[in-house]
TrEMBL record:
It comes from Aneurinibacillus aneurinilyticus. One of its GO terms (biological process) is proteolysis. GO terms for molecular function: peptidase activity. Keywords: Hydrolase, Protease. This is Serine protease.
Length: 179
């Protein structure tokens, strides 16, 4: 099975940007043992004011957010994954949109073939396919980066639709060298 890192397409310069998120949600709150504490919160964030706003289907930072349409696809593959509704408000355009915070589980699937920079960040990411095979969408345990990986079938399903703002990068698997 092939896996891909899903990320926000940085080529879209006018992509929407929620503000004030880091004052409400910390990185630690996105871990499995903390997630249920957010169930009672009503999350609403204003968008950074720009001349134009492009409503992309995947927002990577400061927290991973999916558009409602994109969430519907992901949910078909992983129905029990944690989703939390987040309202994004564009005060200038008097517009509100529902996005979904996702927090895929962390999987210990990092291969010994992975390489790191001296500061601990990933230089070459390699996963152990056998440890990841039963997961459709997940994060990797044991690295500083907060990559979200999706399986080939999920990637194909996303690519068949007209989603914007999503980039996919193939991940190396143990024993398979691709240059």
């Amino acid at each position: 099975m092939n896996y891909f890192i899903i990320s926000q397409d940085e080529r879209i310069f006018d992509a929407i940007e929620p503000t004030g998120v880091s004052q409400v949600i910390t990185r630690e709150q996105l871990e499995e043992e903390q997630l249920r504490k957010m169930d009672k919160l009503i999350l609403q964030f204003s968008l950074k004011e720009k001349t134009t706003n492009e409503y992309v289907d995947f927002i990577q930072r400061p927290i991973p957010l999916l558009s409602d349409q994109c969430k519907q696809i992901i949910e078909k593959y992983v129905p029990h994954m944690y989703f939390k509704s987040v309202v994004l408000v564009d005060r200038k355009q008097m517009r509100q949109d529902v996005y979904w915070l996702i927090a895929p589980p962390r999987i210990n699937c990092l291969s010994d073939e992975s390489e790191f920079h001296k500061d601990g960040t990933i230089k070459r990411l390699v996963i152990d396919e056998q440890k990841a095979i039963s997961h459709k969408i997940f994060r990797i345990d044991g690295i500083l980066e907060d990559y979200i990986l999706i399986s080939l079938d999920v990637a194909e399903s996303l690519l068949r639709r007209n989603f914007t703002g999503i980039r996919l990068k193939k991940v190396e698997k143990e024993g398979v060298y691709e240059r």
